[in-house]
Amino acid sequence: MSDVWPVPAPPLVSPTAAALLSILFTVVYVLPFYLSAATRPSPQLTRDAPSSIRARVRAVTSSCIISTILTLVVLHQSGGFDAAQILRFLGLWPVSPLDTARTILLVAILFAGPLFEYGIVDGHWKDWLVGRELYQTLSSWIGYRNYVAGPVSEELIWRALVIPIHILAGFSEKRIVFLTPLYFGIAHLHHLYEFRLTNPRTPLLIAIVRSLFQFTYTSLFGFFAAFVFIRTGNLYSVILAHSFCNWMGLPRLYGRVGVEAGEPIGPPEKADGQSTDPPIQSHGVGWTVAYYVLLVAGAVGFGYQLFPLTESSHALPVVPGTW
């Protein structure tokens, strides 16, 4: 490994410097959202407005360029890496379609239940085959933000830039996996302010709980993404996994399949109690049982396949640790 990767011993960057740079990257990413009227949320301008999304994408692009340049300087001057080694540290080269496919398979196993509901029960599998839903989704600015600009920029900052700096600082694999995603989770806390602006009637406690919940699941995904990035050295894998998870959303944890969670099964009623439209199509209970069986099986399968499907010869050179 030492012929390809100069092993940093002693650490080439101090832990304090690694933390400060990670905080700087987080601030540089989020702060521009509030420096311009075009990107700053207000009761009249939500973060989902096309003009706001376009302005934020431009701001994020600039932030990524600044943070990348800083990281390149650190890797070259502190680590003494050449261009090829820097590309490997950032997870940009070599490209391994097999590692990417194995990572997506792992995520698909985890979401076996939701894929079954959305594809089979709700009948979207035909749209998947012809790519209709993908085209429609990416044709909107919200879709472009959620599935392209967001995953690319966030994985570049909090995986490709933050993790190599922590490797230079001598952090162990386990510490990197469980520490660096916290910066990623913290970067989403500003949504509390945005939510309060656009939903002023929502009680503060509910808004805080919502924000903490978002911090929790973004950090959980960050643990997984950091783990995959270290074990595969492949930025493309975590970007696609991020897009896939954004597309799937949180899985259904209660209710029958074929209807919205919490929605009563039966025909809608008029004010006088008489039904109007045709009844909601309800599937048999067997479909719901199959969904929850797949949901549990997917979680178990994900645990069993986590290490085998992320095994790669392109792993990054971190201090090993037991799991």
Structural class: mainly alpha
Task: Report Rg.
Answer: 22 Å
- DSSP helix fraction: 55-70%
Distance between the termini: 22 Å
Q: Characterize the main sheet.
A: none
Runs in which pLDDT lies below 50 for 5 or more consecutive residues are: 263-271, 275-280
Number of helical segments with 4 or more residues:
13
Beta-strand content estimate: under 5%
Mean pLDDT: 87
Count of strand segments: 0
- The coarse silhouette is globular
Order of helical and strand elements: HHHHHHHHHHHHH
Organism: Pseudopithomyces chartarum
InterPro entries: Rce1 (IPR039731), Rce1/LyrA-like_dom (IPR003675)
Protein name: intramembrane prenyl-peptidase Rce1
Keywords: Endoplasmic reticulum, Hydrolase, Membrane, Protease, Transmembrane, Transmembrane helix
Give a topology summary.
Elements: H1 15-30, H2 50-77, H3 83-89, H4 97-110, H5 112-121, H6 125-130, H7 132-138, H8 141-168, H9 173-186, H10 191-198, H11 204-232, H12 235-248, H13 285-305
Helix pairs in contact: 1-2, 1-8, 2-8, 4-12, 4-13, 5-13, 8-9, 8-11, 8-12, 9-11, 10-11, 11-12
Could you write a compact summary of the structure shown?
The chain has 323 residues and is mainly alpha-helical. Helix 4 runs parallel beside helix 12 and helix 8 packs antiparallel against helix 9.
